[in-house]
Design goal:
This protein has 257 residues and is mainly α. β1 and β2 form a beta hairpin. The longest helix is centred in the last third of the chain and has 20 residues.
Length: 257
């Protein structure tokens, strides 16, 4: 590219890159969480992390977008969630792209969880949905290192980050047959690579409602099926939970971080 521009601007008469065949660099396999794994994580995590993970699993928000959620971004009456900012290293910034600024529907189950979370002794002057005792937004990296990794280790799942929820969300929406335009809008992607979808197909928020309802139903079912983490000490051999954990049941994370 540099040589082509230099030649076009008259800085050189030779394009040394002409005919150069660059090798294809394979993209690393991205980790993802299955619906069952996301449900297990939600079902075993303590609050408020469980609600945080549910938001990540159902909405597919990026880590910074999750941390940047404000109470004013949550419309419980209409079951809507707006993404208007992101948090990076403790500082508020605009979302990744123009398409990242979006409003998406949330399920009844998630709305109920958020309602309970927002009324659970939060400081009235707190701006953020997920915040520290001082009112500052959560540090997504600290949540992963101090909370998520320990839960994954207990469940026998490979270590991964919050982006695995985003990939899991996209994979689950595809499995549920959610229209591509709705998936693109919910994930905040600028383009899907198809002019028919990108230019001539327009999404409606009603499509989000159906997607959110179906996502919420799946996550609710998987979370309710979550195995307990402890077994009675007196009859350890007769309890199948420990055996399930040790055999790393449903160990399907697509990679490592």
């Amino acid at each position: 590219m540099m040589w082509r521009i230099a030649k076009a601007w008259g800085y050189t008469e030779v394009d040394v890159s002409s005919g150069l065949d660059l090798p294809q660099v394979p993209r690393p396999k991205q980790p993802f969480l299955t619906a069952a794994q996301m449900g297990r994580i939600i079902g075993t995590a303590a609050e408020p992390q469980a609600t945080f993970y549910w938001v990540a699993a159902e909405t597919g928000l990026r880590a910074g977008e999750l941390a940047g959620l404000r109470k004013t971004d949550v419309d419980l009456a209409n079951r809507r969630l707006s993404v208007e900012q992101s948090i990076w290293k403790g500082a508020v910034q605009t979302p990744k792209t123009e398409s990242s600024v979006r409003t998406i529907s949330i399920s009844r189950q998630l709305a109920n969880r958020l309602s309970a979370h927002l009324t659970r002794k939060l400081r009235s002057e707190t701006v953020f949905v997920f915040c520290t005792r001082t009112g500052s937004p959560w540090d997504a990296n600290m949540v992963v290192k101090r909370k998520l990794w320990s839960t994954l280790k207990t469940l026998g799942f490979p270590r991964c980050g919050l982006h695995a929820f985003r990939h899991g969300n996209a994979t689950l929406m595809d499995a549920l047959g959610v229209p591509l335009k709705v998936r693109q809008s919910r994930l905040g992607h600028s383009r899907s690579g198809d002019i028919t979808t990108d230019v001539y197909t327009h999404f409606q928020i009603e499509g989000h409602d159906d997607a959110a309802s179906r996502l919420g139903s799946v996550l609710s079912k998987e979370a309710s099926n979550s195995l307990p983490l402890t077994c009675p000490k007196t009859k350890r051999a007769s309890c199948g939970v420990q055996e399930a954990l040790e055999s790393k049941q449903e160990n399907g994370c697509g990679g490592w971080i």
